[in-house]
Write a structure and sequence with these properties.
Shape: globular
Radius of gyration: 14 Å
Number of helices: 0
Structural class: mainly beta
Distance between the termini: 40 Å
Strand content: over 45%
Number of strands: 11
Length: about 120
C-alpha cells in the first residue's frame, strides 16, 4: 500500500517562506508523476505544481516564480518550496502521486494534507 506523508506546513507571515515535504513509502520513480494540490475553504482542490518521472515540471499561474517543486530520489521525497507567500496561498496542501493502472488507466494516491496559513 502506497503511503504519502506530508510535513512542513504551518503559520507564516506574508512574504515569508515554507518548504513542504512529501515522503513516499516506495520509490518516487514508480510513479508517472507527483504533485502538490491545495484546497482553501469553500473552494475546489487545485493543482499547484507537479513533476513527472522524467523531471518535467508545471505550475499553476498563481504560483509561478514563487514556488518550486523538486525531488530527492534517495529519500523518496518530493518538496515544494514556497517563497513570497501571500494570504491567498492559505489552504490545506495535499501531496499526490499517480501511476498507470486500474480501470480508468490511472491510479492516484493522496497524502493526509498539511495546513499552510499565511497571516500577519
Amino acid at each position: 500500500q502506497v503511503q504519502l506523508v506530508e510535513s512542513g506546513g504551518g503559520l507564516v507571515q506574508p512574504g515569508g517562506s515554507l518548504r513542504l515535504a512529501c515522503a513516499a513509502s516506495g520509490s518516487i520513480f514508480s510513479f508517472n508523476a507527483m504533485g502538490w494540490y491545495r484546497q482553501a475553504p469553500g473552494k475546489q482542490r487545485e493543482l499547484v505544481a507537479a513533476i513527472t518521472n522524467g523531471g518535467s515540471t508545471n505550475y499553476a499561474d498563481s504560483v509561478k516564480g514563487r514556488f518550486t517543486i523538486s525531488r530527492d530520489s534517495a529519500k523518496n521525497t518530493v518538496y515544494l518550496r514556497m517563497n513570497s507567500l501571500k494570504p491567498e496561498d492559505t489552504a490545506v496542501y495535499y501531496c499526490n502521486a499517480e501511476r498507470t493502472g486500474g480501470i480508468t488507466g490511472k491510479i492516484e494516491y493522496w497524502g493526509q494534507g498539511t495546513q499552510v496559513t499565511v497571516s500577519s
